[in-house]
Amino acid sequence: MQSLSCKKFVLLGLSFCNIWAQVYTDVPFYQDRSIKFQNTPNQPLLTTVSTDQNQNILVLSSEGLLAPWKESLKPNYQYRPMENMDVLDIANYKGQFYFLNQKAVFSFSHGAKFYVEHGIDTPLLFAMGRDESFLVLKNNGGIYNGINGRSKVNFKLRQKPISVLYDRDYNQFFILTSLNLFKFQPGRQKLEKVYEGSKFTAIELFKNKIWLGTSEGIRVLSHSDFLLEKQLDALPHNEITSLKNIDGVLWAGSKKGCFKFREDNRFDYYASKRWLLDDAVNTIEKGPEKSVLILSKQGLNQIVFEAMTLEQKADYFQKIQRQRHIRYGLESSVVLKVAGDLSTSSLIDTDNDGLWTSMYLAAELFRFAVTQKEEAKRNAIEAFEAMERLTSISNIKGFPARTFEWEGHQRSNWKKGDSYGTWKKASDEKWVWKTTTSSDESCGHFFVYALFAEIIQDEQWKKRAVKLIKDQMDHIIENNWYLVSWDGKPTRWGRWHPDYVNSFPIQVGDRRLNSTLILTFLQTTYHFTGDNKYKNHALKLAKDHGYEENATRPASVIGLVKGEILSDAWNHSDDEMYFLTAPAFVKYAFDEESKKRYLKSVATHWEIERSEKNPLWNFLYSISGGEKIDLENAVWWLKEYPFDLIDWKVENSHRKDLKKVDENFRKQEYESVLPRDERPHHLHNRAYQNNGGSDGFREYSPYVYLLPYWAGRYSGAILPME
Predict the structure, then answer these.
(1) Phi/psi class of residue 491: alpha, beta or left (left: φ > 0; alpha: ψ in -120 to 50)?
(2) Which residue, 114, 241, 483, 670, is most buried by CB atoms nearer than 10 A?
(3) What is the pTM of this model?
(4) Contact assessment for residue 456 and residue 380, using Cβ atoms and an 8 Å cutoff
């Protein structure tokens, strides 16, 4: 994170110098993503996984050795002698594969010279020790084969071993059963019980401690005297199945996903089909090239960590946006006919195509403003023309449709054979358009047309944007501060008349929000047309009807109003509308004193929203003139946004590591918001959503990342990599 002493730039015509400006210069970070390899059709039991120095990966199954190939596990035929061999265990020893079968421990490396018959019946597990010594275990005992086979030591166990681990620092082996931990020291040639308990499942050495996984958490023992030092049971899931120290970082597998221990005593949690084929983790091992291999019931999952910048991440999402999320030039939602299968994707209409397209268009406008790439301008113009058609297709001057579609193919709120209801035929009867337009849509239209007119310098395009602003404003004025649809009636949510706005107690967010919206619409229209009627209307609403008082009231006033459906909980859709409106609310104010008052009001809203760590709110607040934002949290959000956009079902309700807060108006569940890659996907009009998802039947739109990233670049808070 870098700070500059002074930042001066022009945004939407607003020039200011911020001596405490925060700036993040984009640098590579490790982006995690998952590659999944399905089990074979016979669904054999998968027991362990290993990799060698050549980046080969082998999975041991009840039907033999398997290897990942494309998106599946396939039988491994690399070494013909292995085809009919019953391999029982695999280990990585000095970067090479070593194998255990019924007769011997052996390796094909270095001329395949290492082949040592172990002389034990029904072996189960083995571990390599110093200088190719090894220990082999069976149900009720084991054998140690010394260096160069010079000594062999047999010993007995009264319980079935579940794990064996070599401790190279002290040249000793640890043997774990469900009830006991044993130590075998080759020098003393003696097996010794060092700790007893119950429900043991896994063992690992980490930070000079012995970590024991159990079905009820993790026990940490002293390495010197084997005394219990602490017990961990506030974990993402306590039924531990595997522990692995990978390059100085401890990973734990459980029956509900796996997690990585962090230095701040928190966890990075990998669960759900976003990360794993299934959550029943069996084994975790180090993989090739900084990856982690996670073996679960349904296959192999490889978590890879790739160095990239925020801009490279944006480039990745940009391609997906253009290839799969554009319908007639509009930003489009995508559903999948087969869960998780992107080849079955289908573009669908929604109630808020106008708003979502305005947000995508804004991302392209910000991108063009900072990069001057013609591709961004071309995409912006295409989206603009699609939004322009939203207004023209209704054949009601200044009334934008929610969306449009070929007749008979509309999806939202309509089934084939039904009456048209909220859908109406266009003049060209091949098309239908959707009515009931809301203030959300109007907000998006005014927000992005103003941006378009500011950023696209071509005079003809600017005139088209200004005309749309003027036509929509005139429609609202001429219809007595309502959006009026085809039937001559106001839509449910397109209402700015004083009788409606001031009917709510001041604690209801709509009173403050709708006042802010309509004043901003009027200010915007006046700014681009210079017509005093818009200014006069704004002043009348502001002074005579209390809209300025409503709009400048601090957001902290918003709260629960019993019996009022609009104030039974905090409305995060209102946050989205508010912050999209904020830059024009401040910038287009009629005088400097009003700008200061309006910015102060915006600051109160940003202050309340800080706990969400949403970069879009931060950067739009910055564009509005905010001098302090939570830049570190905003960048964290962008880094943690998942690569996988499929709407997998995600659950966090079982987690013991999260501290809950008391029930509250904002519906915040935990003390700190979870990273985006540990939560279900959602748009910017949701927050604190910790459980849910469509179980893979939707792909979310990349603009959810693209808009805050490019807003950050446009605001000057994010600089490209030097």
Answers:
(1) beta
(2) 483
(3) 0.94
(4) yes
